[in-house]
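Table S2 (text version). Query chain:
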Amino acid sequence: MSIHTGAIPLMKRARPISHRARGLLGLAALMLGGCVSLAPDYARGPLPVPARWPGPALEADADAKADTKADAAALPWQDFVLDERLRTLISQALTHNRDLQAAAHNLEAARALYRQGRAGLFPTLGVAGTDTREWQGDDRQDSVGVTRTSQLTLATTYELDLVGRIRNQSQAALERYLASAEGARALRVSLIGEVAQAYLTYASDKALGALASNTRDTAQRGMELSEARFRQGMGTRQDYLVQEALFQQARADEARYARLMAQDANALALLVGRPLKPEQLPDALVDGGYTQAPLPPGLPAQVLLARPDVRQAEHQLKATHADIGVARAAFFPTLSLTGAAGGISTTLLGLVQNPTHLAGLTGTLGLPIFSGGANEAKLAQARALREAALASYEKAIQKAFREVADALVAQDTLSAEKNAQGDYLVSLEQQLRIVEARQRLGRDGALAVFVIQRQVLAARAALIRARLAEASNHVALYKTLGGGGTD
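Corresponding structure-token output:
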């Protein structure tokens, strides 16, 4: 069983409203539609993560460094990226990437939705006209007269926002629009990082492919030399087979990296949103020169609040606070005012020249009495959604903290790993020269040379990958700190 509350007319007039009445009505509207709001106040609580990152971030001069690094998260990507070709590709991606274009259109839709909700704060205004003819008699043929009435009416409707229902609806729409804007910014930051990562991956695979090609050429020359020595009776068949094994392995590596480079180029073209010319692709990976050096440790966890994904979650949380205000307002009366003014005449010309003026004002009061528990359920739903949004907001902060912590830890170890790998390669190359010299003197066989050659090849590839990991971590740290600002 349910009881539907009807509209209760408050007042009606059949004569024009005086200027004094209009002023009193406007004053009453301002008083009734004041600053009352049933939404709970929003207050940002403590961060659900430590104040600083673990490890080197706890160094003694962390507080002194934090002041100089607070702006690092907002470092423009144009300043962060040093490689000119990479900077050009990122600029093109920010223009042509289809995901970013879709996000921009979705943002426009969210803005339009906010404007729709905000429209409820203002009165509606409309005009209507009628022209009526009435015949007297049994039918038109026998009619003794015709009565014609023309009417033009200007009407307005306005709901007094007694408890902030409309304002909270508008605020919720605004917060969701702002969340969409931060989501688009997060996508932009992610795109910058993805383009840089794809660029570095291509450069790394190109370096590995060049290493395979050089190894193949070296092994081929070794095969020719071994075969000539074998014919002269100065070598063994094993010498040739060892070089052939290295040659065949290099051929396989060369084919694999050629395939990976083609796939890397396709991935980069998809991110950029348009076909790429060969001259736009990077050269083989080198040590440094692609982006700025990594940020030093000591950053306070407070910088996470500037990340677009965290800001997006916070705006969504704020929207749920406004939703609670809307749900609470359903328990209170609603008051709407409808006013109309116009003229009536027996002719269309008279409607313009000498009409009979009409005016009226109607107030409609809606009183909630019984809704079968629907209002209570909506309020409970709004509160539950707020708690869910709070959990999502805190999870976004924790996720951001973990990503930055991982990047900071990697920053402290990748450089050391790369340097150690370089020293290891130098040691192996020295061993290779010694073993090759001993082979020429007949003290070591081809197998000993082959073992060291394989180790050198693996060490050179590992050094390229270590350079890629360090350069990629520069990008990851910049992205996890919410970088990528300005166009």
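Notes on Table S2: The beta strands are 8-9, 124-136, 145-160, 334-345, 356-366. Residues 44-130+145-480 form a domain with the Outer membrane efflux proteins (OEP) fold (CATH 1.20.1600.10).
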